[in-house]
Each structure stands twice: as structure tokens, then as C-alpha cells.
Amino acid sequence: SLILVPDSVPGQMMHATVKDLNPWVDYEFRVVAINSVGVGEPSTPSKQIRTKAAPKVAPVNVSGGGGARGELVIIWEPVPEEQQSGEDFGYVVAFRPLGSSTWIQTVLASPDASRYIYRNDSIAPLSQFEVKVGVYNSLGEGQFSRVVRVLSAEEPSEAPSRVWGRAVSASDIEVYWEPIPPGSSKEKIIAYEVLFWEEGSQQSQADRVKVINTMALLSGLKGSTVYLISVRAQNSAGLGPCSPAFNITTKKPPRQPPGNIEWNLTNSKIFLNWEHVKAMENESEVTGYKVVYRQNWHGRTTVLETNKTSVELQIPSGEDYLIEIKALTKGGDGTSSGPIRIPKMS
């Protein structure tokens, strides 16, 4: 757009002042001669000149909160380059505890800054601060934003609810819970921690599993053992309170031994078959069977595992054999069938 100097300049003057230009804008200038006959051709443009001034615009959308324990997080919208009005642009962040008369100030010498974190271990959770953000450039300081109130970080204040679980096997427990509602914690819940420990030991000795959803699988546990379980939420500031502990007993190996065992001896081979062991509700699922056999009472023991309810053993004739069968589970071996004596072939 064309801007005219409002007052005419006398013919003998070689300079003029242009006022009320926008700061931090590139301008070109031309000069036109005027006499009684009329207006002449304009000169060729000058080189571009950028105007400068102290900043006139303060940051907007100043807010904050969250962060880790002992942190005050302050955020704002950066001032666009065309409104920075000069070089060496930066921000002045000022804050004070609510009720204090003294501002704490820090300078951020970056035009792109949009966040400042003040760290002090003595800051209590949910402490109120008054906060304002100002600007400056090489020609001076601009104005501050309006004062806003910002809270320091706080851990979750409540525990997860409706925590329950079930023993999946002798070594695994599944745990479930309801998530903490979004409105009840000022900060976003980023994870949950499940604590579990054996009955008779202390919670301080608990093992821990961290998950981002509302279900956890506890594995590598002892069979037929009572475990106490508790869950707590975590946000960027730390861990919240634990839910009331509840107990679950891991499953045990089946008590029922393999039954109705039948065997046939033919040409140095023993054919064995038996009934499948059905695990009870509190027992681990049967994954297979272990067949242990040896020559009489003193011979070398051989172990064979199978997922069927029959097996064929190749053994030399001329010796008595003792055989026993056990169910296999994740939580260990089930009850043995007891020794079955197979007499030597005549």
C-alpha cells in the first residue's frame, strides 16, 4: 500500500520523516518532484528498510499446571514473528506464590519458547501461584500478559475402584479394575501399578507390575499360595494411594491321580493307557502327562512326557519294571498314580 508524507517538503530539503509506520515491517521509499506545471516521475525504489520498536503485543493464553512432583509448569502461545517488532526477541516469565508480594522472574532468550518449568522440591502439591509472561527485544521490554493463577503438580488423589481378580493357573493371576474418571484427577492418568505379595510378608516387599490399561497379568507365582493384591494410579507427578488389598489363592496341581491304568506287554514293548485327569475349579489345567519308569527298585529312572493318555515304551525283556504316571500342569506335577509293577517276560 502507498503511504504519503502528509506535508509537502520544500524543494531545497533533501530529507523527510515518515511517521506512524507499523513496527517490524519492510518498507520501500520513492521521491517525486513537484513544480507549478505538475508532478514528475517517481524515483526508483530505495532498498527495503525494516522498522523497529519495543514489542507492543503481550503473550496470550497463559496457563499451566501438571508436570512432576515439585514442579510449576507455565505455558503460553508464542508471539508471531510479525508482532515481535525487533531483533533478539524473548520472554520474561514472572510468578509468585499466592499471597506473596515478591515476583520471581526468569528470562527465556528464545522467540519460539512456549513453556517454562520451575522446579523446587519444597513446592507442595496443588500450590497456587500467580503467573504472568512478558516480552522484550533489542529495543526494550514490552508489556506483560494479564495475571493468571496456576496450580503446581499433584499426584492422583484417589485409588482405582472395583478391583478384582481370578487365578488362571498355579502360576498366573489376572487382575482387573475400573479406571479413575477423567474429572477426578487434575492430571492425565498415564499408568497403573499393581502390587502383589505373599500372605505373611509385608507390602513393602511387594513385587510390582506397571500397565497402561485396566488389566494386568501376574505371572511366575507359586502354586497353591495366597497373594495379596493392590492397585494404584500414576500421573506425571507420581503415584496415588493404593486400593484396599484383597487376596487370591493360586491354583494347585490336581489331586486326582491318573486312573483306570491298563497295560499290555508284547515283544519288549509296553502299551499303557489311562483316563484323562479332569482338574477341579481350584486346580491347574492339565497340559500333559509324565510317565516315570525304572528297572525294579534300584534301576536308572527314565522320564517320558506326552500330551496323550497313552504311551508305548520300548524296554528290554528279562527285568521287572516299575511305572508311575502323573498329570502335568503349569503349577507342577499332580498326584502320582503310585508304582505299577510290570513283571518280566517269561
From TrEMBL:
Q: Which SUPFAM superfamilies match?
A: Fibronectin type III
Which UniProt keywords are present, listed alphabetically?
Repeat
Q: Which SMART domains match?
A: FN3
Top-level taxon in the UniProt lineage: Eukaryota
Return the PROSITE patterns for the record: FN3
InterPro entries membership = FN3_dom, FN3_sf, Ig-like_fold, Striated_Muscle_Regulatory
Q: Where is the Fibronectin type-III domain?
A: 1-54, 58-156, 159-253, 257-346
Q: Known CDD domains for this protein? A: FN3 (cd00063)
Q: What is this protein called?
A: Fibronectin type-III domain-containing protein
Organism the protein comes from: Seriola lalandi dorsalis
